[in-house]
Design a protein that fits this description.
Helix content is about 90%, strand content about 0%. The chain has two helices and no strands. The radius of gyration is 29 Å and the shape is rod-shaped. The termini are far apart.
Length: about 80
């Protein structure tokens, strides 16, 4: 049994279009997840940096060496 060309086209369209749509959605959703993960990581890093700065300021106010000073001293011997 041979199908008419227009029926073959419609059959292929019905099979391929949903797959193409899923692939397209996957790419967009994957990009969105990646961006969200990057924003979460960036926020966590910024918070950690702020906490480290607070500790540095506290130690400096006490007249103690800060982690930066200790690391600089260790690097230069």
């Amino acid at each position: 049994m041979k199908l008419a060309p227009h029926l073959v086209d419609r059959l292929v369209e019905r099979l391929v279009d949903p797959i193409a749509d899923r692939v397209s959605r996957w790419a967009v959703e994957s990009q969105q997840r990646s961006r969200r993960n990057a924003m979460i990581a960036s926020t966590a890093l910024a918070q950690r940096r702020a906490e480290l700065d607070d500790v540095e300021e506290f130690l400096a106010a006490l007249g103690q060496s800060t982690a930066r000073e200790v690391a600089a001293h260790a690097a230069h011997g």
